[in-house]
Structures are given as C-alpha cells and as structure tokens.
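Hi R.,

Here's the input for the nicotinamide-adenine-dinucleotide complex you asked about:
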Amino acid sequence: MLNVHSIIQRQRSFFAGGKTKQVEFRLEQLAKLKQSVKDREKQIIKALKQDLNKSEFESYATEIGFLYEEINMMMKHLRSWAKPEKVKTPMTHIGASSYIYPEPYGLTLIIAPWNYPFQLQLAPLVGAMAAGNCAVLKPSELTPNVSALLSELVQSTFEEEYIAVVEGGVEASQALLEEKFDYIFFTGSVAVGRIVMQAAAKHLTPVTLELGGKSPTIVDEDANLEITAKRIAWGKFTNAGQTCVAPDYLLIHKKVKEQFIRLFQTYINEFYGENPLESDQYTRIVSERHFKRLAGFLENGTAVIGGNTNAEKLMIAPTLLDGVTWDSPVMQDEIFGPILPMMEFSTLDEAIGHVQHSPNPLALYYFSESTEKQERILQSIRFGGGCMNDTLMHLANPNLPFGGVGNSGIGSYHGKSSFEVFSHQKSVLKQTTKLDPPFRYPSFKHGLSMMKKIFK
Ligand code: NAD
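And here is the predicted structure with nicotinamide-adenine-dinucleotide in place:
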C-alpha cells in the first residue's frame, strides 16, 4: 500500500551524496521551512481549529510561535554547534590532538501525536535537519486536517528524497517501523513507546522516546495562592488538559484547600467565561473515544468545579474533582484531559512519599515560598523536568533540555539538545608520525615500571 521502502531507498542515496553534510545547505533548508510555515499561518490555525477547536491565541503561542523560536535559535548557533570541537589530550598521547565531530545519523523517522500535532512534528524536524539528517515524518491520524497540511507543506518545500511525510494510522506507523532507520524520534504514549523501542531493537536503531505520565502538582500551605491558582488553571486547561506536561493531579495542603478552590474558580471564569463549553478560547477533546474515557472519570469523585460536558461538541468543562483516592480509576493512568483530581495532605513528607511510589513523571510542579522545601522536593523525587511556582513554562525555555526519565521517556530535545540528539559524536584522535615513544610497545624494557608510574 505504501511506497515507504522506495522513499527510504531514495533518501539513502541522497544522504550518501553528502549534500546534507554542508552547513550552508542545512541553513538554507531551515530558512525554507520557516518561510513555508509563515506562508501558511492562516491554514495552520484553521486546521487546528477544525481538528481540536484550538483558539488562534493558543495555536500561535504553542504551535507556530514556539516553532519559530526553535528555528531561530538553531539558525543563530548552527555554525558553531556543527564545528568539530577540540578537546584535551593526555600527556601519554604526546604528539596527538583530539576532536569530537558532530555527525548526522543519516535517515531519521519522526512519529508525532495529535495533541500539538503541528509543533510536535516539526520541532524535532528542526533538530534532525540542523544536524544534517534526512527525515520521514509520520503525523497523527487523529488530527487529519493538520496531517494533510503537514504533507502539503513538506511536499511543496522539500524534495521527497530529503524530507517526506507518510500519512496514516497504526498500519502506516508499523510499515515504517519495519524499515531500517538510523534514528527514531517518537512522541506519544508509553504503550506505543514500548512497541517503537521493540521495533527499533531489531535494527539496533537508537531512539528518543518523548512519553507522558501522571505529572503531580503539589501546593503547600505557604504558597502564594492567588498566583498558584492562576498558573495551575492556565497549565491544566491550556489545550483542555491534552498536554503531556499538564498538571495531572493536585496534592493540596489541607489548610489552604478551601481558599484554593475559590481562587481556581475565579481564574477559570476569567479565562473561559461563565460557560467554558461555549468559549471559543477553549479546546475540545480530540475524539469520541477520548471523550467517553474522560467523561467516565467524572464518576470518580465530586466535581466541586465544572463537571458538565457536551458530547456533541466533544467538550468537557474545566473540572476540579474532590473526594478522589489513590485507588480511583482517574488516578491509575495519565488523564490527558481537563479534569483535575484533588487530594489533601498534612505534611510535605506525606506528599513526597506518595509521589515517590508512583512511576517517574514527565513533569512535577511545586508551589511554596520556601526555597528549603523546594530543594527537598528536588532532592527526593525523580522527574523529567518541571517548575517551582509555575506550570509548563520549563518546556518553553530552549536552554533547558526537555524529556522524561524512567516511564516518562528516554532522551531530550529543544534548543541545543535538538542538535545533539540527532548527532552522533564521532571521537577522533589525530596522531603525528614524527614521534613514536616506545612505552606502549611490548618489547620496551622498562614498559611495566613506566606504566605503573603513570597510572597510579
Ligand atoms: P499514541 O502513542 O497513541 O500515538 C502516537 C503516534 O504513534 C501516532 O502517530 C500514532 O499513529 C502512532 N501509533 C499508534 N499506535 C501505534 C502502534 N501500535 N504502532 C506504531 N505506531 C502507533 O499517542 P497519542 O494518543 O497520539 O498522544 C498522547 C500521548 O502522547 C500521551 O501519553 C502524551 O503524554 C504523550 N505526549 C508526550 C509528549 C512529550 O513531549 N513527552 C508530547 C505530547 C504527547
């Protein structure tokens, strides 16, 4: 059904031609990518509205603007990042100098999910191109308008032998995973991440897995509650909670719970009005299957805020769920929707203990004015990345590598890390033939005693 094999063969021979090794070529292609996105801003916003009811504001901030920042940073630094780096050489290697050459892997496969369907496909591509690779992109089938637009954008900007898009669902993904790539970059669920890693193992292909998980949000008794409620409402309900690093659940100190609920309601109203289900600023749920899965969670507790839905429009109001326990179904897997279950704690140790017993999350957010307690959180819990007194913002700093740990993923990207993740570090020692000290050779009389003096 798919001409996947022939695309890959053509990309192999294009890569072998060496054009992508030239930094000038890479810079030209990145500029072309940026221009193609600029030319299509209206269509991108329209496709995101059709597929997810994303507002123009969110589409620009989280999909288009974000991508421009990645391209700009890459273009600014590429010449220096792509240069071989001279490193120190020990005295034992007298006469030699040592270098690290960043080198493209070759053919890369980039598989994307549906929640930020544009940005999560193209931001890794920026890294792949900057590092000098060819790429095959596989957008999500659940956002068909964005998928079609990505295909059109790539086809009209690049030769297929350099960058190609293969649209389709699981079968398309599986057909691609049968092939040998030199690097696979996958963003999606933990379950599919396992499938991707198994497929990659057959060819010993290295992988980056950008996965998800249940990201805890802990609000302590000394938090600045106004700002806390505002930033959690923003981080949770952006994209209707369908964000890999969205606050998944809330652990709240029991002394501040009532006040938090009041403030949380205030900010939800401020952002999305009295009836968020009618708001054009509020994203819908991607599919009926996900809508039903999420609506089921509303039975797991009492909605102290929200709880109403519109099945026809696939919308669920921003919801704060009380009366939830660690055993509730909503606490078993990543929620990935606008429902925030809330549980109380009395001491920070109690909150830390609960989180330590859960799989390593992709993100963690802690709200407290105490730097000592912030440090305690950082020292005792393993998580991909996160914020103190904020949500989501760490991923928008290109100087912070973005990725998970344990169950939430392998590897990281953004900014310089995007260049590094798609580059092999080739280590090279350049030796002179003018000298040849005898110490290393077996015939040298005092070899052993010299070795013992050097390596002690
Ligand atoms: P998904 O794993 O269902 O799908 C991701 C991609 O894999 C899609 O392109 C899909 O077509 C493909 N796929 C699905 N089933 C497959 C199979 N059996 N074999 C091969 N390929 C298959 O994920 P999703 O529902 O699109 O996205 C939601 C998940 O992604 C959440 O868990 C979320 O946390 C995670 N996510 C992570 C990040 C991150 O940066 N870490 C970002 C966004 C989303």
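One thing worth noting: DSSP finds 15 helices and 18 strands in the chain.

Cheers,
M.
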